[in-house]
C-alpha cells in the first residue's frame, strides 16, 4: 500500500511540476467561461426546468459538474465543438426540441457567447485548463483503394440510339459516375445514358423500358452499373448492366411502385432496394432471392448505400429516419438520430468509417460508426440538400434547392460553389478519373466542371437526339457547308476578276507614265540647245545693240564736231586745216555711222534668227509641262489603284480560306453523316441481335 | 329546304303542344348568362334557355330554342356554346314559341391564346376532380404520400409538392403524359382514388398542356386575377315531375374584369339529392316532390340556385288560408309556391299547452286550463301570450338560453362566484328587457374585473383569440368559421384571410389576475396581432364580410361590437330572429341556427329578412318579436299533416312534434307530481331552468341532453330520444319516485274527489286535456280488478301519463 501511495504522491508531484513547467507556455485564459458568462445565461433561460431539483430530461445546467455529465439524451456539451453539442443544436434551433421551449430563439449575441464558450472547450472558469477536445478527425488515410486490375472499365462500342427523343429533358433524377473510369451515367425516360466524362461524348445508351431510373450506382469496382426505378404505382425494379460489355446481366425486385433507392454491395452479392412501401428489401444477386426485409422505416425510403467494406448498409427515409444495418444479416447496427426532415441521400466515405447524409433542411451530417453520433453537421444548401457524395479522397460534393453544386473539403470547408443552375439542382457526382464534378437540375440541364478550378467545361444532354436526327443535322450542315463553299467560290471568282482588271489598269498607267516621262525628256532635250542658242543670239543682239548705241553716241558727237569744224572752217574761210579736219571728221563719221548701221543690221538679223527659235523653245517647254502634268496626275491615281489591288488580293485570300474551310466543314459533316449512319447501322444490328436473342 | 324548315317547325309545334305545356301558356323566356363576353381564343361561353309558364313551371328549352347570332362571323356556335372567331360586338337572339330574348355578345382578342396558368387552370382541376378534398390528398397528412392543400388554400405549396417535393416522380417534363400525376388520374396505373377523368377529357388536356409548357409556376402569384364573384344560372327553377332536367351554367368573374365559363370546372352539390340530383356536368334531374338548393363551387366561391320539384302535372288550388300577421303572409307565400296547403289551426287545448311550454317552460295548471277554455273572446290566444310574456318564467327561460350561448359554466379557470355574477348580470339584462344590441355591445366591449364587471366573464370563459372570434361569429352571426382556421371554407365564401382578419379584433385582450385570485381583470392591451399561418403576414382587423375599419386609438373589441349590431352587418338581427323562431317553431328558418352559410340557405329568406327588420324596428325588444311569432297562425298550426304537406319539414306548413327539452321536462314532471327539486346553489323548489351553472346537472338532465355549455354550439342541447331516456323514465328514480314523493294522488283523494275526477285532474295537469272515454274506460277496468286500490291504480295511471309520448312531446 505504502509504495503505491508514494508512487501516487510522486506522480502528483511529477504532474504538478510538469504543470508548473508548462505555465509560461500556457495559452492566455479563455475569454468566455461558464462562471463568468454562460452560467448567467443558463440561469436566465434554462434553469427554470434544468435545475438541480427539477432536472427535466435529467439535465442540470445550474452547476458545471452536473452540466458536463449531460442528461437523458447523453452529453449535452462536446467541449471544443459546438456543432456536435446537443445543447447547441437545440438552442440554435438546428434540432428539435427547440430550446427554450415555447419561446423565441435566443438572440444572436447570446448564442454567439454559448458557441464561443463550447468551441473554446467549455471552460468552467478563467483558471480552467482547456482540454481542447480534438474535433473529429475527418482526415482519410490508408484507405484500401479497391482499384480493379486491368484497364479502366469503359464500355465497348454501344448503340447510341436513345430510347426516345424528347424536346424537353426531364428533371435529372439519377446521376452516377464510375469510380475508376471517366464515365458518367444519366437516367432518362426508358434509358440510361453513358457519357465519357473526358470528351463529354455520348458513349452508349442502355435501354430501360421499365420506366424512369430514379437511382443509378456503379459498383465499387466500376464494372457494374445498377439502375433502380420503374413506372410510378405500376412497377419497380433494379437492373444491373456489365459496363464493360453493355449487357444487362440481372434484374432484381418486382415492386408495385417505382424503386426510389437502391445499391449493389461492393462484393456484388447483394442488391438492396427501397421505395414508397417503406421497406428496404435485400436480394441475393446469385439466386435472385430476397434475403431479408427491413420494416423499420416509417416513411418512403429515399436513400440506401452499402459501406465500401461490405459490412454495413445505411438506409434513410422521408421522415428523417436514418439507420445502419449489418449488410449480411439485416440486423440493426445503429440508429442515427438527428434529421427532422426527409433524408435525400447517404454516402459512405471510402474507409467506411464515416457516413454522410443530407436532408430537406439543407443540412449535411457526418456520422461516425462507433456510437452513431454526428461528428459534423452544417447547413449546405438553403431550402434543402438533394444529394451528397463522398469522393475517393474524402472530399464531398453536394447540391440542392439553392441551385448550386458545391465541393467540400474532407473537413466540411467549402472549396467551390459551382455556377448556379436556373432551377433546383437534384443530383451531383464526382468523377474521380478526371477530377470533374457533374450535376443536373430540375429543368434537365447537366453541367460538368473542373473540380480543381471550378471552371465549367461543358454540358451533357439529358435528351440527346436520335441518330437519324444527328444524320439529318449533319446532312443539313454538309449542305450548308457546300452552299458556303459555293458562295465563297463565287466571291473568289469576282475578286479574282477585279484583281486582274486592277492589275491591267495599273500596268497601263505605268506605261503611260513612262511615255510621258520620255516625252518630257525629249522635249527637254530639244529645248536645251535651243535655249543656249537663244541665249547666245540674245547676247549677240544685245551686244550689237549696245555697240550701236555706244557708236550712235560717238556718231552724234562726231556729227556735232564735224558741224563745228565745218562751221569753223566757214568762218575761217575755208581753212584747209579745218576742212581737212572736217573731212577727216566726216570720214570718221561716215565710218562710224556705217559701223552703227552694221551693228544694227547684225542685231536685226540676230532678232530675226531669235523669233523662230524662241517659238520652238516654248513649244518644247510646253510639251515638257504637259508630260509633267500627265505624270503627276497618273502618280496621284496610283496609290488608290494599288490599294484596290491589295483589297482584291485580300478578298481573294479570304474567299480562298472560306472555301477551304467550307470544304473542311463539308468533309467533316459528310464524315459525321457517315459516322452516324454507321452508328445507326450498328444500333440496328444491335437491335436485331437483341431481337434474335429474345426470340 | 323550305319543306324541312316547315317540318322542323311542325315538330317544334308538336312538342309545344304536348299536354304538360299546353295547359299553361308560355309567359317568359330567359337566356343565361344575359350577356356573353369572349376574351382570347381559349374562351367560350355555354348558355341555357329557360321557359317560364304561367303556372310557374319552368322548362329547360336550350335544345329546342332557335338561336341566331346577328353577326355570325364573330362567333362559332356549337353545342349551346359560343366560341370566339373574330373581334367585335353582336347579339344573340333566342326564340322559342312566341317569345324571344336577346343577349349582347362581345368578342375580344379572338385569335390570341391565353397562356396556361397554374392557379387559373390547374388548381381548379384538383378541386373539380376532388383531388384536394379532406378524404384524399387534401387531408392534413395527405394521402398515399402525396398532399395537396385542402380545397386549394395554398397554391404555392401545392405547386412545390407537385413539382419539387419528389422531383421526377409526379411530373415528367420529358414525357408529360407519363407523369405519375397524369397516369394516376386517368387510371393508367393503380390509384387509391380511382380514375378521376378520361385521357381525352379537358381536365387531362389542361394538366398535360401545363406540363408540356414546362410545369411552370405563375411568375407573380399576386398578379394572377382572383375570382371576385361566381354566377350560377338559372337562378331558380320549378321542375315538373320526376325526370325533368335543367342544365346549369356557371360563370366566374375575375378581378381583371374578365370572365370565364367554368361550368366544367365548378363542383356541383345539392342539399336534397332525392328531389334534385345534380351531375358533375351540371345537369339537374328532378326526383320526388320537394325543394332543393343546388350549388356550384369554384375557387373559394359557392353559389346556389333554388329548385322546386313538383309531381308531374300536379293540379293545385291555393285554399287562401287566413293570416294573422306578416309572418303568415310570408309563410303562406312560400307554401303557395310549393303548392302546399297548410295544416289546420290547432285546438285551444293544444295551443295552451304549446304556448305555456314554449313561452314559460311550464305546463298550465288546472285552473289556468279551465280559465282559458272558458274564455270565449276571439283574441284570447293573444291575451294568453301577453299574459305569459309578462311572467318571470319567460325571463328565466331566455336567461337559460343565453347562458347556453355564452357558455356559462364554472370550471378550473372560471370560479363559481364569477360565473354566478355573470349569470346574474345576464338575468338583469333580460329581465329589464335591455335591447339585444345594447347587451351585445356591452358584453363584447366589456372591461374590468370579472367580479366587478361581470360581462367581462365572456373573455374569461374563452381565452383563446381564435376561439373567441369563432364564438362571436357563431353566436352573434350564426356562422361557423372554425374550418377556415386551417383552410378556406369548403361550402361558404369564407377564406383563411377572412378568419384571421376577423380574429385580429380579439388579439389585444389583456388579462391579469385581480386581488382575489379567482378574479380576472380584462383590459385592452393595445398590442398583439394575428399572423396568417401560411405566409406569416400580419392580418389587419377586417369585419367578416365587411370593411377594414380605421382602428386608430380605439379598442378593437368596441369597434367590432359596434359593427356587429349595426345595419352594416346583415347577420345580427336575422340571426337573433332565427334563434327565437327556432325556439318556437322547432327549427330555424336556417337550420341549424348557428350554421348560416351559402350552402345552407334559409328555407324562407323573405320571412327571415322580415323578422330581422321587425326586430330592428322593435329596437331589439325581445317580447314583441315573440308575440309576433306566437300570434301568427304559422305557430298555431296543428301537427296533423294533410296530403300536400306530409313530406314538408322545412316550410312550417304544419307544427313540429318536439320532445320537450331536458330542463323543461324535469320541471314539468315536478310540476305535475307536485314535488320539489333541489339543485346546487338554488333554494329548494327552484326549477331546473334556473340552474345558473352549466357544470351543475343531474342524471335526468344529462340523459335528456341538457347543454353542458362547454361550447357555444346550438347542438349542445340534445332533444333526440334515445333508449336510456326511455329506460330512465320507465325504471329510473325520477318519475316513480316523484309520483310517490309528491303524494298528489292521496291528497286529491283525501280532498274527496272521485277517482275519475282525480284522473281527469291528472290528465289536465299533464296533457292539458280531459281524458277520453276510452281512457276513462281503461281506468274503470283497472279499478274494477279484484283488490285494486284507487290510490295505487291512480298512481299507476299517473306514471303511465308521465311515460306517454303525449307528455314528453310538445305538440
Instruction: Please write the CATH class name of the largest domain in chain A.
Output: Mainly Beta
Distance from N terminus to C terminus of chain A (CA atoms, Å) equals 89 Å
Beta-strand share of residues of chain B: 15-25%
Structural class of chain A: alpha+beta
Name of the CATH architecture of the largest domain in chain A:
7 Propeller
CATH homologous superfamily grouping of the largest domain in chain A? YVTN repeat-like/Quinoprotein amine dehydrogenase
Strand order of the largest sheet of chain B: 2-10-9-6
| Total separate domains of chain A | 3
Structural descriptors:
heterodimer; A: 695 residues; alpha+beta; Methylamine Dehydrogenase, Chain H; Helix Hairpins; 3 domains; four-stranded antiparallel sheet; 7 helices; 28 strands; elongated; disordered N terminus; B: 811 residues; four-stranded mixed sheet; 29 helices; 27 strands; 36% helix; globular
Secondary-structure blueprint of this entry?
The complex is a heterodimer of chains A (695) and B (811).
Chain A lengths: L1 H21 L11 H12 L18 H6 L16 H6 L16 H12 L55 E3 L5 E6 L2 E6 L5 E6 L4 E7 L5 E8 L3 E8 L4 E9 L3 E6 L5 E6 L4 E5 L5 E5 L6 E6 L5 E6 L4 E5 L5 E4 L7 E6 L5 E6 L3 E6 L5 E6 L5 E6 L5 E5 L4 E4 L5 E4 L7 E7 L4 E6 L3 E6 L5 E6 L5 H105 L4 H119 L1
Antiparallel strand pairs in A: 1-2, 2-3, 3-4, 5-6, 6-7, 7-8, 9-10, 10-11, 11-12, 13-14, 14-15, 15-16, 17-18, 18-19, 19-20, 21-22, 22-23, 23-24, 25-26, 26-27, 27-28
Helix pairs in contact in A: 2-5, 6-7
Chain B lengths: L1 H15 L2 H4 L3 E7 L3 E4 L5 E2 L1 E6 L4 E3 L5 E4 L5 E4 L2 E4 L3 E9 L2 E10 L9 H11 L26 H11 L14 H6 L16 H11 L14 E7 L2 E5 L4 E3 L1 E6 L4 E3 L5 E4 L5 E3 L4 E4 L3 E9 L2 E10 L15 H12 L10 H13 L5 H9 L5 H10 L2 H14 L10 H16 L4 H9 L3 E2 L8 H4 L3 H12 L19 H8 L5 E5 L6 E5 L5 E2 L6 E2 L16 H10 L6 H14 L19 H13 L4 H10 L26 E2 L2 H12 L25 H5 L19 H9 L3 H8 L1 H7 L4 H13 L5 H12 L5 H14 L1 H4 E2 L1
Parallel strand pairs in B: 2-10, 12-20
Antiparallel strand pairs in B: 1-4, 3-8, 4-5, 6-9, 7-8, 9-10, 11-14, 13-18, 14-15, 16-19, 17-18, 19-20, 21-23, 22-23, 24-25, 26-27
Helix pairs in contact in B: 3-6, 7-19, 8-10, 10-20, 11-12, 13-17, 15-16, 18-19, 18-20, 24-28, 26-28
Amino acid at each position: 500500500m505504502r509504495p503505491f501511495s508514494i508512487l501516487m504522491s510522486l506522480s502528483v508531484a511529477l504532474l504538478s511540476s510538469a504543470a508548473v513547467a508548462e505555465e509560461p507556455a500556457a495559452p492566455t485564459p479563455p475569454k468566455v467561461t461558464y462562471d463568468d458568462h454562460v452560467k448567467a445565461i443558463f440561469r436566465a433561460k434554462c434553469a427554470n426546468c434544468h435545475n438541480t431539483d427539477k432536472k427535466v430530461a435529467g439535465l442540470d445546467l445550474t452547476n458545471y459538474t452536473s452540466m458536463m455529465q449531460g442528461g437523458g439524451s447523453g452529453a449535452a456539451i462536446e467541449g471544443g465543438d459546438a456543432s456536435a453539442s446537443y445543447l447547441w443544436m437545440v438552442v440554435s434551433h438546428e434540432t428539435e426540441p427547440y430550446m427554450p421551449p415555447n419561446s423565441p430563439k435566443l438572440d444572436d449575441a447570446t448564442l454567439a457567447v454559448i458557441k464561443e464558450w463550447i468551441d473554446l472547450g467549455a471552460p468552467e472558469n478563467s483558471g480552467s485548463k482547456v482540454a481542447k477536445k480534438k474535433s473529429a478527425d475527418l482526415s482519410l488515410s490508408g484507405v484500401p483503394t479497391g482499384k480493379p486490375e486491368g484497364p479502366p472499365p469503359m464500355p465497348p462500342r454501344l448503340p447510341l440510339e436513345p430510347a426516345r427523343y424528347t424536346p424537353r429533358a426531364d428533371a435529372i433524377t439519377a446521376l452516377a459516375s464510375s469510380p475508376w473510369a471517366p464515365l458518367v451515367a444519366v437516367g432518362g425516360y426508358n434509358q440510361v445514358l453513358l457519357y465519357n466524362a473526358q470528351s463529354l461524348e455520348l458513349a452508349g445508351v442502355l435501354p430501360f423500358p421499365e420506366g424512369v431510373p430514379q437511382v443509378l450506382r456503379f459498383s465499387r469496382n466500376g464494372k457494374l452499373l445498377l439502375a433502380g426505378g420503374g413506372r410510378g404505382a405500376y412497377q419497380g425494379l433494379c437492373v444491373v448492366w456489365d459496363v464493360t460489355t453493355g449487357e444487362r446481366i440481372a434484374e432484381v425486385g418486382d415492386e408495385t411502385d417505382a424503386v426510389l433507392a437502391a445499391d449493389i454491395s461492393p462484393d456484388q452479392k447483394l442488391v438492396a432496394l427501397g421505395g414508397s412501401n417503406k421497406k428496404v428489401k435485400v436480394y441475393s444477386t446469385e439466386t435472385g432471392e430476397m434475403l431479408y426485409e427491413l420494416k423499420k422505416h416509417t416513411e418512403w425510403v429515399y436513400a440506401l448505400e452499402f459501406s465500401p467494406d461490405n459490412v454495413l448498409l445505411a438506409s434513410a427515409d422521408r421522415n428523417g429516419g436514418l439507420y445502419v444495418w449489418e449488410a449480411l444479416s439485416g440486423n440493426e447496427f445503429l440508429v442515427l438520430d438527428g434529421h427532422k426532415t426527409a433524408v435525400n441521400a447517404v454516402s459512405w466515405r471510402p474507409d467506411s468509417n464515416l457516413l454522410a447524409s443530407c436532408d430537406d433542411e439543407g443540412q449535411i451530417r457526418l456520422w461516425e460508426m462507433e456510437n452513431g453520433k454526428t461528428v459534423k453537421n452544417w447547413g449546405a444548401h438553403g431550402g434543402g440538400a438533394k444529394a451528397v457524395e463522398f469522393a475517393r479522397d474524402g472530399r464531398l460534393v453536394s447540391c440542392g434547392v439553392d441551385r448550386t453544386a458545391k465541393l467540400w473539403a474532407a473537413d466540411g470547408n467549402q472549396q467551390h460553389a459551382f455556377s448556379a443552375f436556373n432551377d433546383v439542382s437534384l443530383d451531383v457526382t464526382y468523377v474521380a478519373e478526371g477530377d470533374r464534378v457533374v450535376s443536373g437540375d430540375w429543368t434537365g440541364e447537366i453541367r460538368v466542371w473542373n473540380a480543381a478550378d471550378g471552371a465549367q467545361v461543358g454540358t451533357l444532354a439529358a435528351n440527346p437526339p436520335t441518330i437519324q436526327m444527328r444524320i439529318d443535322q449533319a446532312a443539313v450542315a454538309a449542305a450548308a457547308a457546300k452552299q458556303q463553299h459555293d458562295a465563297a467560290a463565287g466571291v473568289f471568282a469576282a475578286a479574282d476578276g477585279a484583281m486582274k482588271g486592277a492589275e491591267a489598269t495599273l500596268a497601263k498607267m505605268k506605261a503611260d507614265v513612262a511615255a510621258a516621262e520620255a516625252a518630257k525628256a525629249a522635249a527637254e532635250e530639244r529645248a536645251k540647245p535651243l535655249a543656249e542658242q537663244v541665249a547666245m543670239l540674245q547676247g549677240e543682239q544685245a551686244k550689237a545693240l549696245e555697240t550701236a548705241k555706244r557708236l550712235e553716241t560717238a556718231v552724234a558727237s562726231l556729227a556735232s564736231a564735224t558741224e563745228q569744224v565745218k562751221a569753223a572752217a566757214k568762218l575761217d574761210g575755208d581753212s584747209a586745216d579745218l576742212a581737212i579736219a572736217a573731212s577727216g571728221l566726216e570720214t570718221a563719221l561716215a565710218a562710224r555711222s556705217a559701223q552703227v548701221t552694221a551693228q544694227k543690221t547684225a542685231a536685226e538679223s540676230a532678232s530675226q534668227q531669235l523669233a523662230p527659235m524662241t517659238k520652238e523653245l516654248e513649244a518644247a517647254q510646253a510639251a515638257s509641262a504637259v508630260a509633267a502634268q500627265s505624270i503627276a496626275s497618273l502618280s496621284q491615281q496610283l496609290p488608290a489603284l494599288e490599294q484596290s489591288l491589295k483589297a482584291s488580293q485580300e478578298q481573294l485570300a479570304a474567299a480562298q480560306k472560306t472555301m477551304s474551310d467550307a470544304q473542311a466543314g463539308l468533309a467533316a459533316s459528310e464524315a459525321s453523316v457517315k459516322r452516324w449512319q454507321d452508328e445507326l447501322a450498328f444500333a440496328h444490328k444491335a437491335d436485331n441481335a437483341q431481337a434474335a436473342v429474345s426470340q | 329546304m323550305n319543306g324541312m324548315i316547315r317540318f322542323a317547325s311542325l315538330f317544334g309545334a308538336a312538342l309545344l303542344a304536348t299536354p304538360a305545356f299546353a295547359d299553361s301558356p308560355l309567359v317568359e323566356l330567359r337566356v343565361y348568362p344575359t350577356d356573353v363576353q369572349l376574351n382570347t381564343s381559349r374562351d367560350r361561353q355555354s348558355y341555357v334557355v329557360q321557359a317560364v309558364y304561367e303556372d310557374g313551371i319552368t322548362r329547360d328549352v336550350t335544345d329546342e330554342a332557335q338561336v341566331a347570332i346577328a353577326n355570325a362571323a364573330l362567333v362559332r356556335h356549337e353545342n349551346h356554346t359560343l366560341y370566339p372567331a373574330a373581334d367585335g360586338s353582336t347579339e344573340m337572339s333566342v326564340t322559342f314559341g312566341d317569345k324571344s330574348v336577346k343577349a349582347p355578345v362581345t368578342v375580344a382578342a379572338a385569335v390570341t391564346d391565353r397562356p396556361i396558368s397554374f392557379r387559373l387552370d390547374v388548381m381548379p382541376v384538383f378541386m373539380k376532380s376532388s383531388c384536394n378534398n379532406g378524404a384524399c390528398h387534401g387531408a392534413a397528412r395527405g394521402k398515399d404520400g402525396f398532399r395537396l392543400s385542402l380545397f386549394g388554400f395554398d397554391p404555392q405549396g401545392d405547386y412545390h409538392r407537385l413539382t419539387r417535393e419528389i422531383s421526377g416522380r409526379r411530373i415528367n417534363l420529358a414525357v408529360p403524359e407519363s407523369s405519375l400525376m397524369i397516369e394516376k388520374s386517368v387510371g393508367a396505373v393503380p390509384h387509391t382514388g380511382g380514375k378521376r377523368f378520361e385521357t381525352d377529357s379537358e381536365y387531362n388536356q389542361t394538366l398535360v398542356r401545363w406540363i408540356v409548357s414546362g410545369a411552370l409556376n405563375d411568375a407573380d402569384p399576386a398578379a394572377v386575377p382572383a375570382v371576385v364573384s361566381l354566377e350560377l344560372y338559372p337562378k331558380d327553377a320549378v321542375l315538373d315531375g320526376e325526370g325533368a332536367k335543367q342544365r346549369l351554367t356557371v360563370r366566374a368573374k375575375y378581378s381583371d374584369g374578365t370572365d370565364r365559363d367554368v361550368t366544367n370546372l365548378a363542383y356541383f352539390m345539392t342539399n336534397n339529392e332525392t328531389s334534385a340530383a345534380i351531375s358533375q356536368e351540371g345537369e339537374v334531374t328532378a326526383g320526388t316532390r320537394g325543394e332543393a338548393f343546388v350549388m356550384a363551387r369554384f375557387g373559394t366561391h359557392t353559389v346556389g340556385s333554388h329548385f322546386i320539384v313538383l309531381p308531374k302535372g300536379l293540379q293545385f288550388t291555393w285554399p287562401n288560408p287566413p293570416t294573422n300577421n306578416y309572418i303568415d303572409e310570408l309563410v303562406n307565400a312560400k307554401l303557395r309556391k310549393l303548392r302546399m296547403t297548410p295544416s289546420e289551426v290547432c285546438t285551444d287545448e293544444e295551443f295552451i299547452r304549446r304556448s305555456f311550454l314554449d313561452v314559460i317552460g311550464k305546463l298550465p295548471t288546472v285552473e289556468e286550463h279551465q280559465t282559458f277554455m272558458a274564455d270565449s273572446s276571439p283574441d284570447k290566444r293573444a291575451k294568453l301570450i301577453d299574459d305569459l310574456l309578462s311572467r318571470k318564467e319567460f325571463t328565466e327561460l331566455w336567461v337559460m338560453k343565453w347562458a347556453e350561448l355564452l357558455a356559462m359554466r364554472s370550471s378550473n379557470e372560471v370560479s363559481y362566484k364569477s360565473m354566478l355574477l355573470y349569470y346574474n348580470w345576464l338575468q338583469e339584462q333580460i329581465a329589464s328587457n335591455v335591447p339585444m344590441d345594447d347587451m351585445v355591445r356591452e358584453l363584447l366591449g366589456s372591461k374590468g374585473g370579472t367580479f366587478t364587471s361581470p360581462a367581462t366573464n365572456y373573455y374569461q370563459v374563452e381565452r383563446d383569440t381564435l376561439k373567441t372570434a369563432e364564438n362571436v361569429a357563431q353566436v352573434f352571426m350564426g356562422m361557423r368559421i372554425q374550418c377556415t382556421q386551417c383552410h378556406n371554407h369548403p361550402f361558404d365564401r369564407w377564406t383563411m384571410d377572412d378568419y384571421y382578419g376577423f380574429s385580429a379584433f380579439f388579439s389585444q385582450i389583456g388579462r391579469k389576475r385581480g386581488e382575489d385570485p379567482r378574479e380576472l381583470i380584462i383590459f385592452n392591451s393595445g398590442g398583439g396581432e394575428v399572423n396568417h399561418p401560411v405566409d406569416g403576414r400580419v392580418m389587419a382587423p377586417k369585419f367578416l364580410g365587411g370593411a377594414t375599419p380605421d382602428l386608430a386609438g380605439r379598442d378593437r373589441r368596441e369597434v367590432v361590437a359596434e359593427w356587429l349590431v349595426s345595419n352594416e352587418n346583415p347577420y345580427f338581427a336575422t340571426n337573433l330572429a332565427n334563434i327565437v323562431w327556432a325556439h318556437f317553431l322547432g327549427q330555424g328558418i336556417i337550420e341549424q341556427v348557428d350554421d348560416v352559410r351559402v350552402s345552407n340557405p334559409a328555407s324562407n329568406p323573405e320571412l327571415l329578412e322580415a323578422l330581422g327588420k321587425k326586430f330592428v324596428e322593435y329596437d331589439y325588444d325581445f317580447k314583441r318579436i315573440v308575440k309576433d311569432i306566437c300570434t301568427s297562425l304559422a305557430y298555431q298550426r296543428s301537427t296533423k299533416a294533410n296530403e300536400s304537406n306530409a313530406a314538408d319539414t322545412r316550410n312550417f306548413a304544419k307544427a313540429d312534434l318536439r320532445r320537450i327539452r331536458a330542463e323543461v321536462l324535469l320541471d314539468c314532471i315536478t310540476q305535475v307530481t307536485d314535488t320539489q327539486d333541489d339543485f346546487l346553489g338554488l333554494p329548494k323548489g327552484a326549477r331546473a331552468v334556473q340552474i345558473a351553472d352549466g357544470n351543475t346537472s343531474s342524471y335526468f338532465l344529462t340523459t335528456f341532453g341538457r347543454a353542458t355549455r362547454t361550447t357555444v354550439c346550438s347542438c349542445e342541447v340534445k332533444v333526440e330520444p334515445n333508449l336510456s331516456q326511455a329506460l330512465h323514465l320507465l325504471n329510473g328514480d325520477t318519475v316513480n319516485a316523484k309520483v310517490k314523493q309528491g303524494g298528489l294522488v292521496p291528497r286529491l283523494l283525501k280532498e274527496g274527489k272521485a277517482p275519475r275526477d282525480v284522473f281527469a285532474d291528472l290528465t289536465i295537469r299533464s296533457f292539458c286535456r280531459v281524458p277520453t272515454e276510452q281512457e276513462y274506460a281503461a281506468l274503470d277496468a283497472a279499478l274494477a280488478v279484484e283488490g285494486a286500490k284507487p290510490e295505487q291504480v291512480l298512481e299507476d295511471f299517473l306514471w303511465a301519463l308521465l311515460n306517454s309520448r303525449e307528455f314528453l312531446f310538445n305538440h
